[in-house]
Design a protein that fits this description.
Length: 302
Amino acid sequence: MAVDGAQGLPRLVFVKMKQYGAGALERYRNLNTYSKLFVWGTLCLYAALGSFIIIVGPDRIGQTLYNFAQKISHYPYGWLILFSVFLVISFPPAVGHTTLITLCGYAYGMKGFPIAAAGSLAGSAVTFVVLRLLFSRRLHKWSQSNEKWQALETVIAAKGLPLIMLIRASPFPPWVYSNALFASIQSVALWQFFLATFVVFPKIAIFVFVGSRLASLSDGEQRSHMDTTTKILNISISVGGVLIAAVASWIIYRLMKKEILHLEGISPEIDELAAEAIEEAEEGAPLLGHHSESRTSFELTA
């Protein structure tokens, strides 16, 4: 039986990968032109970034990042520079939230955690308020005509703060689009969104810690004084921290999906539409995205 199970595992993995691949392809085909261009632009960006790392070399990039971080840490108001950048990158379609958190670790070690935490809180709150004020008319029009968003609002209104916190802790949608997502949902109050953001603090702490470990490995002078055991230990701790964050994020994402799809007192159809709305949030709907027209709206009742 154990042998059969071991032989069946690769097949199970292959089947799952095939299912996810088919689902991703189907979702891509359903995207409009704007969204497809966004996908290809993202792929090109990552390809260019990978090529840059290969050509320039990780050592030179790490040393440059370390030198830059040290310059910031020696400025009297270096922390304010990082804090201000958090405000900027919290708006879609900016990227780099996790990188900036890691940079706080590079520059200040674990003392960078308060900067990263406060910057994330302030940036997300400002984004929430600004987007909701700027797009209030579009928000009202969207929520009246899009059945997926009506479903999502119904689900969040039914579950309240616990579900908001679970979605906030999930890696999907990403940071900036999560900010836009909650700004788009009328039933979510600013205080709820603010409190829910505290659940990302453990993840922030992990990446600040990883940044502090990578800083010592990135500096050639410090690295030259390390023995092999110390280098391996620092690398293992850094990789382990990232893996822990990734596994925890995936578990939270699965829990979030399960929670949305199995809410008591709400029909399965509404649950499914709400889950689809979460998946589409990466495109910035409804505040920033351009989507295909929704199906005929129907009245959602619990």
